[in-house]
Amino acid sequence: MAHARMPRRRLALAVTAALAVTVGTLTAVPAVAVTGAVTAAEQTQQEAIALPPGSVLIGNGPSGFLTRRTEGNQYVYAWTRYADGVTTTLPAPLPGGRYVGSLGGDRVVKTEGAVHTVYDMATGADPMVIDTSSLGTSAQLIRLAGTTLVMRVTRADGRADVHLVSKPADALVDRVVTGLPADAAVRRYDMSTPDTLALLYTGTVDGVTGSRVALVNVATAAIVEDRAATGAGLSGDVSVSATHLAWAEKSSSDSSATLAVARRGQPAVERIPLGTGAMLTELMGDWVTYGVPGGTTAYAPNPLHALTARSLTTGQTVKLLDTVDLIRPEADGDLLVQGGSIEHGQGLYRIAPGADGTPAATLVASTGLPIVLQLTGQTVPDTFDFRTSSGDGYLTWQFATQTGANVRVELTHTATGKQWTSTSNVDVAGRGLAYWTGLFDDHTAAANGTYTWKMTATPTNGIGAPVERTGTLTVDSGQAPHGFSDTGSPDLIIREGGFLSVYDGRQALQHGAQTELKETNIGAGWDAYDQIVTPGNVAGARFADLVARDKTGALWLHTGTGKTAFSERTKIGGGWQIYNKITAGGDLDGDARPDLVATDTAGDLWLYKGTGSATAPFAPRVKIGYGWGIYNKIVATGNIGGGTAGDLVARDTAGDLWLYLGNGDGTFAARTRIGGGWNAYDEIIAIGDADRDGRPDLLAHGPDGRSDELALYSGTGDWKVPFGARSWLYAAPPLTGSYKTLF
């Protein structure tokens, strides 16, 4: 495949430099009129013309080409000269109007209703105005052949005639194409040369109904050849040369594409199966070119997305471009193709015979856009904090074009090797997005620490190599008071007999019904304790701890390690058998350390302020209340009332739940009833912020609740109504069961 290599610096300038633009009334063209075609050899010596992205080729002649692009909600039409790259922006037509380019000529027509104005862009001659109102309101401009309008006019019976309308010597000439069968329905109007119109139609000839191609002499409006085109789709492409006729066939059953080629005037047809897709085709001398458009944004590889030339004499094939969008013949027999190559990107390419007669592609005009994936920017946060859902976020990679691509992102926790992966497609804005909510692939919470990431974008069209980038980021979600796995997320602890297990809170509470729960077995011997509480970090280290009382009344501290395991126990007190209820987990005195409260058999309430010491984590007790014997459950909830310190909730024997708002000095305000029916639960757990809204929640389970579900009461932050409506969370074994204890 031969390409004219444009200087790198010039290509960059072509993308960024402003176009030389003139805007006129089209009574004349810019001062320098150019006649004569620019040959492939001449173009090789020139620099590629800068073409605005989004431009679509709709006309071409020896001296320049016509393009259309969208700005806002309207089309902008422009004529560009080959010689110097000067672009003329054409005056906007009236609403509903448009411009149509000619084939192999430098004329363009502005159509506004029944008025069609033909301009000669090469010479600047006075425009020709053709009024087709005499054809009726159904008349529709299809093509421009030189100065002849190809019109479609619908008859009263619903069928359409083809009219060739011109205005020689200032007199309107309307010629109707005749000779088509009475039931003919024209599906496509194609032109490969200005003097021959190819009509693809369905109709009945000699009792056989099917697809046919009729060739019309534009000068005489006479049909010079009419032949069967069996297999041609209703919108299949047709090409005609002086010696051959070619058309694309597409199977209705499997979309397979076949190229059909026949010699003019001969019945034999050579059919060449090629693959799948709606194919373009165009003849060029002793060669036929073909390709399936849309390769740049395709969602699957297809070899036919490339523009290929096939010799009509030897069957040799040559790949010319990596993508093709449209093919237009030139007046000298060459082709002007809108498409792209991996080397030069998107633009207009001239296809012409090389020195040995083999077709070759030369870049004529460049949009500056690649056809392969090209990364232009990325936004990857340095740190994620998943304590609340507002910490969730995007990792974004920006690509230069809307080239379809599958984007796979892998994040790997350096310490454990656990991963989160994301797969998505590049969106319409050219972005590859991965949205991380702080979960690994098994739905467990992402641990704090360093992560490596890898992004691989693979083009869906198979054109070009994948794009890969790597980097690092950090997760720092802090520590949750009820978290034991260094994730910043609360966890669930379950005791069954003497065995203790930890379950990841986010997996258990958000995805328990959808995934196999991950369990960490802490070990046996925990039945030595008759009470276990989760006070948070009382030992002054980074992680949450456990405090447990054995059956002799001794109090023990198990410091957390952040690895869903605990250190060897340390005795921190004795005589605790005098208490029937112990709870911890809230900062009651405002010193940022968790405290412990307990009620004795007399109903007195005692406060043990946290010290932050691993050997003596609690200060001597202080009596802060009495009459608490009416309650069978007390829970240190943290700050659920929106005040300045931690609060308590207590359940009485009738099942009513009462809120004690903390005053911030270790005492509480008068109680407020906040609910009834809580005697349905055996377990009421201050789980922490389970739903990641920044407010602590309650979790409950018991024999009168649903046996396979947990009840979540989300905190509201309003002391008057501190919890929202109950949500049932499907948990099932191993989280539930009357023989298990949750805390």
What does this structure look like?
With 743 residues, the protein is mainly β. Helix content is 3%, strand content 47%. The strands form 14 sheets. The protein has a five-stranded mixed β-sheet, with no helix packed on it. Strands 2-30-29-28-27 form a five-stranded mixed β-sheet. The chain is elongated. The two termini are 72 Å apart. 44% of the residues are buried. The model is unreliable at 1-45 (pLDDT under 50).
Distance between the termini: 72 Å
Number of strands: 58
Radius of gyration: 40 Å
Q: How much of the residues is beta strand, in percent?
A: over 45%
Mean model confidence by pLDDT: 89
The major sheet is characterized as: 5 strands, mixed
The portion of residues assigned to helices is under 10%
Instruction: Tally the helices.
Output: 3
Which geometry do the CA atoms define?
elongated
